[in-house]
Amino acid sequence: MGHAAEVPLVIVACGSYSPITYLHLRMFEMAKDWVVEDGRFELMGCYFSPVSDAYNKPGLASWHHRVAMCERGVAQSSDIMVDPWEASRKAYQRTTLVLDHFEYEINTVRDGVALAAHKGARESDAPSPRRRVRIMLLAGGDLIQSFAVPNLWAKADLDAILGNFGCIIIERTGSDVHDFLLSNDHLHRHRRHVFVVKQFIHNDISSTKIRLFVQRGMSIKFLLPDQVIDYIEAHALYRK
Predict the structure, then answer these.
(1) Which residues, 6 or more positions from 91, have their beta carbon under 8 angstroms from its beta carbon?
(2) Cβ–Cβ under 8 Å, residues 13 and 44
(3) Are strands 7-15 and 41-50 parallel, antiparallel or unpaired?
(4) Distance of CA 138 to the CA centre of its chain
(5) What family classification does the UniProt entry report for this protein (predicted)?
């Protein structure tokens, strides 16, 4: 870690990723730009966390296929990774449990991150002090708006996600997340832990459309990484 004044940060994006697209990858890039511009955090890493097969969503490829596609999608990135823990579970994992998993692995098992040694420090000096890493959820505006759907989210989970961790929201063109933050009680209560990132270039690539294109025999070139396209073709995914 480079700067003691900045809070170390790990960003986690949960989703189906069936398949991963350039929009999913761009969300992390927009979040990274925001981290630099904001100045309060130092980014330690970014993780895709695909859902388990128990999510049982139409068009959901098997978890090992989705993890493999995500791994191929991030192959050219030095700081975006894929965590298979959620995907490999037999039961569906609520978002708060996924964030708890990252909290445990990074801050309990690994004991956070070490602060950079001060200039002039010798090898014999005491080990650098360690610092807790902030875990945040990365989400699109559509997921945030689902927080207002009755009985879809447990109130305790919303309080944990927004209060204990925080959320970076990528605002889609034409939507007004700030207005929604004002009108929703849970989001307004935790508004200081909710960070909205404007999407300046409209991008509405969706996994649903990708699957439909494959079914119809249409080209998906330049909508997702070539390595992912090759994997879809090699395993005959989404043909029916």
Answers:
(1) 52, 54
(2) no
(3) parallel
(4) 4
(5) Belongs to the eukaryotic NMN adenylyltransferase family.
Candidates 98, 77, 95; CA nearest to 29 is 77
Structure tokens given for 110: 């690994």
Q: How confident is the model at residue 18 (pLDDT cuts 50, 70, 90)?
A: very high
Cα 235 to Cα 240: distance, rounded to the nearest angstrom: 13
Q: In CATH, what is the architecture of 7-116+130-204?
A: 3-Layer(aba) Sandwich (3.40)
Spatial distance between the Cα atoms of 57 and 60, rounded to a whole number of angstroms:
6
Tokens at residue 195, please? 């960070």
Indicate the domain borders of the chain.
Answer: 7-116+130-204
Phi-psi region of 59 (alpha: psi -120 to 50; beta: other; left: phi over 0): left
Reported pTM: 0.91
**Residues paired with residue 7 on neighbouring β-strands, in sequence order:** 41
- Please list the residues that pair with 168 across neighbouring strands: 138, 195
What confidence score (pLDDT) does residue 175 get?
A: 65
Widest distance between CA atoms in the chain: 65
Distance CA(46)–CA(48), nearest Å, equals: 7
